[in-house]
Amino acid sequence: MPAARERPQPAPALPDPQARGALARMVMTLFDHWQLSSDDQAALLGIAAGNRAALMRYRRGEPIGTSRDQFERVGHLLGIHKNLRLLFPRNRDLAYRWMTTPNRAFEHRTPVEVIREWGFAGLLMVRAYLDRARGA
């Protein structure tokens, strides 16, 4: 009997603009807590370093872009934040400084540098490191 073919599942729809606007505000607040430069913020979101206009729009709460890449980046960034808050529940300063602190696990580079160098793969590496650290 031949194996049944699985139909490819359609990609889930992106949230509505209002929800994407809330995500934009959340990630920009997170960048403020992490004290990232505009260039680092753009790199983490996967947009051109010179695209400060997009960062200003997101800061005002305009919807985060409709590209799946950018939407997934925001999800991973918020997941990193959640992991840091769970790993350092009594030390908010350490949780916020962690992204810009050199780490032996990343050859003494900061997590932000890893993401800038490796792009989306770097973001996944940082997220996976933190997932393992908290035993998830």
Describe this structure in words.
By secondary structure, the protein is mainly alpha-helical. The protein has helices at 17-34, 38-45, 52-59, 68-87, 92-97, 111-118, 120-133. The protein has one domain. The protein is built from seven helices and no strands. The longest helix has 20 residues, at 68-87. It is globular. The mean pLDDT is 90.
Write the layout of secondary structure elements.
Elements: H1 17-34, H2 38-45, H3 52-59, H4 68-87, H5 92-97, H6 111-118, H7 120-133
Helix pairs in contact: 1-4, 4-7, 6-7
> Number of DSSP helices?
7
Distance between the termini: 40 Å
Q: Please write the string of helix (H) and strand (E) elements.
A: HHHHHHH
Shape: globular
Fraction of residues in β-strands: under 5%
Total domain modules: 1
Number of strands: 0
Q: Mean pLDDT, nearest integer?
A: 90
Q: Which class of secondary structure composition applies to the elements?
A: mainly alpha
Radius of gyration: 17 Å
Provide the low-confidence segments as ranges.
Answer: none
| Biggest β-sheet description | none
Q: Give helix % range.
A: 55-70%
